[in-house]
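In the previous lecture we treated proteins in isolation. Real proteins rarely work alone, and many bind small molecules. This record shows how such a complex is specified: first the sequence, then the SMILES for adenosine-5'-triphosphate.
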Amino acid sequence: MEKYVLEMKNISKLFPGVKALDSVNLKVKPNQIHALVGENGAGKSTLMNVLSGVYPYGTYEGDIVVNGVTCKFKKIKDSEAKKIAIIHQELALIPTLSIAENVFLGNEQSNAGIIIDWHKTKLKTMEILKKVGLKESIDNRIKDIGMGKQQLVEIAKALAKDVKILILDEPTAALNDEDSDHLLDLLIELKKEGITSIIISHKLNEVTKVADEITVLRDGKIIETLSKGIDEISEKRIIKGMVGREITDRFPKREHKVGEICFEVKNWNAYDHMDESKHKLKDININTRVGEVVGIAGIMGAGRTELAMSIFGKAYGKKISGTILKNGKKLHLHNVKDAIDNGIAYTTEDRKTSGLNLIDDIKGNICIASLKSISKGIVIDANNEIKVAEEYRKKLGIKSPSILQKTGNLSGGNQQKVVFSKWIFSDPDILILDEPTRGIDVGAKYEIYSVINKLAEKGKTILMISSELPEILGMCDRIYVMNEGRIVGELNSSEASQESIMHCIMQSH
Ligand SMILES: Nc1ncnc2c1ncn2[C@@H]1O[C@H](COP(=O)(O)OP(=O)(O)OP(=O)(O)O)[C@@H](O)[C@H]1O
Ligand SMILES: [Mg+2]
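The predicted 3D structure, ligand included, written as tokens:
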């Protein structure tokens, strides 16, 4: 048996104005979980796209050696033939198709190679779903199941192709702790069956827990590969490798000056968009004060995003009732424009579908929600637009050769920074943040937290939804706990802890 199941030798990859990979050497041993970590834009996704043939042979320099054999993949199908499968940062499932259809998409089970054999497809799907631990009817559509389950469908899809090297690009970024644990356990199980996983993640606690080896990338170069049992593996050491310096505090300090109540949501009720019989938000009462950062904690499916979107000009929900008050005055928000005009901003958790215009550049995306403030009369002031975009690029460290770069070409975390800039620049009084640091590296998280703190110090109010409890605990003055569409607890920062939040959730059942 070869010592390495995979070797990537001296891989370099250029994009216009960017050296995304610079002589990278990656060695992966068989039957292991190998983690790839690094800051946003370090080159992790690019390296895996080279490996899987997304970037064909000839568009990069260097060699890919799989089980001792040099490979020249011209397309994704070629790497699949070598039993390599990649699950991308943004999932590639088709929402309106069923689980079974997705699992065998492009790999349909046929009779004598002509007609799709649905009976065979379904039996095989059921078998694979059992293996990945997904308890769901195979006829259910992707759009009706949660993110955790969608990830498992992606893995099922890879297993259906008899994969030996499974690449997962930030698989747990959008998952709650329970779903993440399930997924990581599955990778450990698959290891026993001879499947090697390469996992990209910003969640360093998970990386240190499951990875046998960890490779750290910085600015397109390999810094080091750490092996469990040989090297000392700690988050501190990994972070130092990633950012090139030590980070002592994860959360910047803020002067807490909380004033009067400035935003209230009262007796708020809403029913599901698709199915009006489902009561999704039940008698919700929340408020925030001037200069306050308020968190909404809860498990996936608690209704936090639905709450935020329904407040944001009824972007979610049917039969909405209740009142919204700003500085004691009732607001009538019929649509998103009304919400923006009244000083409310909402950063979505899902940047691909609703956060960004991927074919537009950084500058256009940052300024789109604030056209009035950069225009002279009805004409956009191009100089002003450039100035503003440059300012945010520097402030948040958006990695890109220029602000004229299409956001579709940015790395995942840098896209998230653009979404964030866009809403900060719109200078809202009430900023609702939905998973603001998903897919963001440790250093950039700190920058985003600093911006949030500055806004609070300026007297703005921030409502922050996050599934990362340490973030909620590290940032918020006050925390609402939500479960099954209701507010089930309210805690001050002094009484809030991981345990007290979980306690509220458990008690509400
Ligand atoms: N199609 C492209 N065109 C131009 N530049 C690109 C393209 N794809 C990636 N880049 C650039 O290459 C660099 C590496 O990007 P990559 O997506 O590999 O980063 P990453 O490590 O996966 O980051 P993240 O953690 O944010 O996902 C970045 O500077 C990015 O802007
Ligand atoms: Mg990436």
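Summary for your notes: Residues 15, 18, 20, 38, 40-46, 89, 399-400, 409-414 surround adenosine-5'-triphosphate (ligand 1) (CB under 6 Å). The radius of gyration is 24 Å.
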